[in-house]
Design goal:
Elements: E1 4-10, H1 16-25, E2 30-34, H2 48-53, H3 55-78, H4 89-114, E3 117-120, E4 122-126, E5 130-134, E6 140-150, E7 154-156, E8 169-170, E9 184-188, H5 192-203, E10 207-212, H6 223-235, E11 239-242, E12 245-252, E13 255-262, E14 265-271, E15 273-276, E16 280-282, E17 315-317, H7 328-342, E18 356-358, E19 363-368, H8 371-376, E20 381-387, H9 392-396, E21 403-409, E22 415-422, H10 425-437, H11 442-446, H12 457-466
Parallel strand pairs: 1-2, 1-6, 2-3, 6-17, 8-15, 9-10, 9-15, 10-11
Antiparallel strand pairs: 4-5, 5-6, 7-16, 12-13, 13-14, 18-19, 19-22, 20-21, 21-22
Helix pairs in contact: 1-4, 1-7, 3-4, 3-5
């Protein structure tokens, strides 16, 4: 038996590494177990899916391809003349890898600075809060802790009609590693990941077809914004087919032959590459001994209460392995909450104020309830919207698509939902998160002074619009 710890965290993704750092900062003797190994097999890789093959590399590619798209098609309108703009895919991938390496290496530095012990190997929770770690050579060691935090994350879902082959049919990780631009690209799933990856390769010249089984586009998004965004994606050349149920995929002569069914019947399509982006599932394979005391549902999610406690004493679980949205920032907040609760404090994550973002162009971001959800709850409400087309800063930036939408309780004026589609929506949504975290009313935002000219003035105008008092657009007439 090795040294006993106050806290052992299994997993060093955005939930696990944050939990470990916070626990150490609170004076707890902390270790973090991570099995990810570098390609050369020599060193441990920290940061999990988000930093290595998810949020960070995808944003690096989205940023580069957005600049390429602007330089290729939009600069002329600014009076900037460009000719023969080219993309160097290898250089783009090299830059992405450099950003990932810098950030993941930084976590190792933070572990050292905060006194977190990093343990390289596959962690498995045993009974009695013991953690068995198997290293890359198959050797095992067992550690003991007063508290164990399970933060093993998630992995892409593989579907029977389109098994991954690592070359022609790939998951989201494989889609970040293409060494050339596919001529025809198929994507299964019009969710966040599918749309972001589709945008990356469409901007570089791929003919992109997105097949989505659901009849509605982005059903989790406020449908007023979702419908407007769908039109903008279609203008960009994304062929999004709704109600398309995948039935098979076969690789023949270096092409992926896809069969699916939609409202018109059986359909077929050929692609150079096929990305399967139908969601992710909890990565709990081999993470729990049968007698660990931790219970899971049939999909592999670990049962926890509102404070992320499992049914086993002293065992917690956070992030993608538990209920709630699979978001890096949600995992991090849960990690902080659990570490502080172990240290004797009583924080609570406000799950009603977790922002969601799609990093396409336009960006789509929201917090709180959609108009459809508020209506279904039977709550009387008021809505204020303001289009970026009427915003001076958006005009100057040639980014006038989309809008800000604020939904408020008709009786209390409390903000129930805050939705943005358009330029810098991922940043603007934080204003809604802060307002809702403080229990703000729409009037509170309406009475706040916003700098001019800024994109954020659209928030001000939408808030004014809740009461029918927007200045820079005509207001809807109130029904008498």
């Amino acid at each position: 038996m090795s040294d006993k710890y106050d806290v052992i965290v299994i997993g060093a993704g955005p939930g696990g590494y944050v939990a470990a750092i916070k626990a150490a900062q609170l004076g707890l003797k902390t270790a973090c177990v991570e099995s990810w190994t570098s390609e050369d097999g020599k060193s441990q890789v920290l940061g999990g899916t988000c930093l290595n093959v998810g949020c960070i590399p995808s944003k690096a590619l989205l940023e580069v391809t957005h600049k390429f798209e602007e330089a290729s098609h939009d600069f002329e309108g600014f009076g900037i003349q460009t000719k023969d703009v080219k993309i160097d895919v290898a250089k783009m991938m090299e830059r992405k890898a450099g950003i990932v390496k810098q950030l993941t290496g930084g976590i190792g530095g933070l572990f050292k600075a905060n006194g977190v012990t990093s343990i390289h190997g596959h962690g498995k929770l045993l009974a009695g809060r013991k953690v068995e770690v198997t290293d890359k050579d198959g050797k095992t060691a067992t550690y003991e802790a007063d508290n164990v935090i399970i933060a093993t994350g998630s992995k892409p879902i593989e579907i029977p009609p389109a098994p991954f082959d690592g070359d022609h049919i790939v998951d989201s990780e494989g889609a970040l590693e293409f060494d050339e631009v596919p001529k025809r690209l198929g994507i299964i799933g019009a969710g966040v990941i599918g749309l972001e990856l589709g945008s990356v390769w469409a901007r570089l010249g791929s003919e992109v077809t997105v097949l989505e089984a659901q009849e509605s586009f982005l059903p989790a998004v406020d449908q007023q914004l979702a419908k407007d965004t769908l039109k903008q994606f279609q203008k960009q050349g994304l062929n999004i087919v709704l109600g398309a149920r995948m039935t098979g995929a076969e690789v023949k002569r270096k092409l992926v032959n896809v069969s699916y069914e939609d409202s018109k019947g059986k359909q077929e399509a050929k692609f150079d590459k096929l990305i399967v982006a139908v969601g992710r599932r909890p990565y709990t394979d081999g993470a729990l001994a049968e007698d660990s005391g931790v219970k899971m549902d049939e999909r592999g999610f670990i049962f926890v209460d509102d404070t992320c406690k499992t049914e086993a004493p002293g065992v917690w679980a956070i992030g993608d392995v538990v209920r709630g949205p699979m978001l890096a920032h949600k995992a991090s907040e849960e990690g902080v909450m659990v570490a502080e609760r172990i240290a004797g404090h009583k924080p609570q994550v406000n799950y009603d104020c977790i922002p969601n973002v799609i990093y396409t162009t336009p960006e789509v971001a929201w917090v709180g309830k959609t108009e459809e959800e508020v209506k279904a709850d039977g709550v009387e409400y008021n809505v204020g919207t303001f289009p970026f087309a009427a915003n001076g800063r958006a005009m100057a930036a040639n980014s006038t698509g989309g809008m800000v939408k604020i939904i408020a309780d008709a009786k209390t004026d409390r903000i129930l939902g805050f939705h943005v589609a358009g330029p810098q929506a991922s940043e603007i949504v934080a204003q809604g998160v802060i307002a809702m975290e403080f229990g703000s009313s729409a009037e509170d935002l309406a009475l706040t002074c916003f700098a001019h000219p800024t994109l954020s003035e659209s928030v001000h105008e939408a808030a004014l619009g809740v009461a029918g008092g927007a200045i820079h657009i005509a207001n809807r007439r109130k029904k008498k």
